[in-house]
Amino acid sequence: MQFVLTLLLLVVVALVTSSPIRLQAEDSHIISAGPKFNHVARLSKGNKAIFTINTEKDGEHPVCLRYGSNTAGHLLVKANGHVQSPIRFVSNSNYLCSNATLRTGINSLVLESQEGPIDLDYIDVHGASPVNERGATLPYLEYEAEDATHNGKVIGPDRTYMSLPSEASGRRAVQIQGSGQFVEFTLKKATNAIVVRFSIPDTPDGSGNVVQLNVLSSSGDILAKLELTSKHSWAYGGFPFSKHPNEGSPHHFYDESRGLLNKRVEANEKIRLVPSGSDLVYTIDLIDTYDVPSPYKKPDQFFTVTDFGADPTGQRDSTNAFFGAINKATETGKGVWIPEGNFAVSQRFQVNKIVIRGAGPWYSTVFATQAYGIGFFGNWAPNPSQNVELYDFSIIGQTQIRIDSQIDSGVGGAYSNSLVQNLWIEHTKCGMWLDGPFDGFHIVGLTIRNVYADGINFHKGVTNSVVKQSIFRNLGDDALAMWAEQEPNRNNEFSYNTIQVPLLANGVAIYGGESNKATNIYVADTICEGGGLQASNRFGARLLSGETILADSTIVRCGAPNRWNTGHNGAVWFWSLDGPIDQKVTVRNLDILDSSFAGGTFWGSQSSSIHFSDVSIDKAPYAFEVESVTGQAYFTNVVAKNIEKTGIHSCQPNFKFVMESGCSGWNSTSC
Ligand SMILES: *[C@@H]1O[C@H](CO)[C@@H](O)[C@H](O)[C@H]1NC(C)=O
Ligand SMILES: *[C@@H]1O[C@H](CO)[C@@H](O)[C@H](O)[C@H]1NC(C)=O
Question: Where is the Alpha-1,3-glucanase catalytic domain (predicted)?
Fold first, then answer.
């Protein structure tokens, strides 16, 4: 009997673990946007559907497709840009399977119709795993220093603007000084690479210190020697800030250093961070530990930058070699390969109709030898680059302060029908600043940290473009913004992104535009003049229209002091500054936790079309706060608890809270 039960259990386990992940075609990113109806996405010739797939295992995965078509034909299949066996289909409606080679973690899977229209219903991917519901599916584990073992001093919690703990994740960090002090982490998973978020003091002249931090194993072996510099942190004076300490108001305290460990450290072992050769105080905020895969291999038919004279040791400038390889690949319709190495460059690269690949962002790094001397740029609108694909490398700038007159982004310009995946961008002004109009840009799996302005900005006339599964930390402005200046941005989506510590402005901001959405976001710790999510008519944007959606997200310790209006804004907020908000804004399924100011804030002139549903606000001074605006907002199933002052803080009788059903915990009012 027991044997039979065990067998049954095994069968059940096998069935459960082998059940595929089903991805609906209408939820994929269709380029160019075809009609989606009856839960089906129609691909005409040349259209593609881009799916995001998470797996826990490298290798071949069966991918099965349910479709309907009046003709026979085939779909071109690309996984992470690599061509797979095509899917050949017959006329009628059917279910058929093919194989795709996928990586551990996040993959892009492109299905491109080579013939007439095919209606895609869904795909089933075997051996795939669900993605995290909120935020990116992270390729690392994060450990806060204050939760680790240490013999230093905890600073914080403190949210006072311009205090050192206020910019730490969770508003706490650990200070260690001298080689006798350490922070020690017990690993939950094997790791071979580490990122340390830290702050060290600036020099009196603002030029910055450079020190060393050793990463030690429990037996005292050095696993990595990380260089920590304060060159890329510390900003002073008024916006957009300077490197002059005598201007006062210091902030932007933290930066990061990353390194591969010289051996893989197993789960349950410890690693220890110890200052080396310096008496400065090291403030350690957190570490991220990675289990980085082996370097990816050069695909056939790619031109390698070293064959054009690029120097992988980073000693000689490789700019001309990159130009050479890019020109040759563009002429011949082939790709560029950036092998393992650190490549010094001093200019931007213009790219169009090209694929550029690296061995992975931990192995293939393009770094700037001077500020503004880097970036991969599409042609300027109205003639955007087409069919650009960038994969698997790092772009590291030399910028130390924000200068808005300089063009300075890891990726910039205009890109239609293009895809970037698994790039790592740091120390440029913006991660990606994209000026439209352009259509159909797919951005997936990026890491953008320690930049001086926006993480990614979709600026004017960007349509049908997405940012997914990307990671943002320590930005100098909005982590993710859509700014519909002059021309509306339309039908764009920011989803499944993780955002930490934007130093100024918001996690996600939608400034005007038509039918855009932000969903499945995790955002924590906004610092100044920003909240977790914002939809506003600001900055001269074309007014919000269609349905704007902010949904399915978690917002932690957000809201911030703000020089306008009430002097602070809430964790989600709406500002009808340039014109009324009178077209639907849907705010659905949010968890707003431990807000610095109100859970939600309404500012502006007139706002009549914001609908909250299924929102929980846990711990905030007020659930909602109103300044000057007139109109109303609608609330269904909005539940507040741990409200420290009153449910509603408003001195504006002409702004009404219309509570439809299921609202509780925020009845009390104050003015
Ligand atoms: C997929 O791969 C498996 C194992 O390599 C193989 O047995 C199967 O026939 C392949 N299926 C298709 C449709 O190519
Ligand atoms: C207001 O108070 C009433 C009566 O106690 C309660 O039923 C309702 O849920 C409260 N509404 C809100 C928004 O707190």
Answer: 329-618
Quote the CA–CA distance of 527 and 561 in Å, as a whole number. Answer: 8
**Is 119 domain-assigned?**
yes
What tens digit of pLDDT does each residue of 157-174 get? 999 999 999 999 999 999
Q: Which helix (H) or strand (E) holds 4?
A: helix 2-18
- Going by C-beta distance under 8 Å and a sequence separation of 6 or more, which residues neighbour residue 634? 610, 611, 612, 658, 660
What is the rounded CA–CA span in Å between residue 559 and residue 563? 13
Three-state DSSP state, 487: coil
Going by C-alpha positions, the residue among 335, 462, 450, 319 that lies closest to residue 392 is 335
Which protein residues touch ligand 2 with a CB less than 6 Å away? 647, 659, 663-667
What is the C-alpha separation between 579 and 542, in angstroms, rounded? 9
pLDDT at 5 over 60: no
Q: How many domains does the chain have?
A: 4
325 phi, psi to nearest 5 deg = -65, -40
Cα→Cα distances 189→263, 269, 369, Å = 14, 9, 36
How many Cβ atoms from other residues are within 10 Å of residue 304's Cβ?
14
Domain membership flag for residue 469? no
The rounded distance, in Å, linking the Cα atoms of 480 and 475 is 10
- 146, two tokens: 């204050």
What is the torsion angle, in degrees rounded to the nearest 10, for the CA atoms of residue 348, residue 349, residue 355 and residue 361? -20
Point out which residues pair with 57 in neighbouring strands: none
Q: Are residues 501 and 600 in the same domain?
A: yes
What's the number of CA atoms in the CB half-sphere (13 Å) around residue 155?
22
For ligand 1, atom 1, which residue shows the shortest CA distance? 99
Q: Whose CA is nearest to atom 13 of ligand 1?
A: 98
Nearest CA to ligand 2 atom 6: 664
Torsion of CA 379, 382, 385, 386, to 10 degrees: 180
Say if 630 falls within a structural domain: yes
Contact (Cβ atoms closer than 8 angstroms) between residue 365 and residue 393: yes
Pocket test for ligand 2, best of 624, 656, 667, 669 (most atoms within 8 A of CB): 667
- Please give the single-letter amino acid code of residue 82: H
Q: Dihedral (C-alpha) 226, 227, 232, 233: value to the nearest 10 degrees? A: 70
What is the per-residue pLDDT for 39? 84
Pull the structure tokens for residue 251: 């902030």
Domain that holds residue 255: 140-290
Residue bearing the CA closest to ligand 1, atom 2? 99
Query: Is 227 domain-assigned?
Result: yes
Q: Which among 245, 274, 290 is the end of a domain?
A: 290
Shortest-distance Cα residue to atom 6 of ligand 1: 99
Residue 84 near ligand 1, beta carbon < 6 Å: no
> Which atom of ligand 1 approaches the CA of 98 most closely?
13
Query: pLDDT-derived band of residue 93, with 50, 70 and 90 as boundaries?
Result: confident
- Residue 4 clears pLDDT 60, i.e. is over it: no
- What's the CA-to-centroid distance between 668 and ligand 2, angstroms? 9
Mean pLDDT across the chain: 95
From 57, 60, 75, give the residue whose CB has the most ligand 1 atoms within 8 Å, as the site to mutate: 60
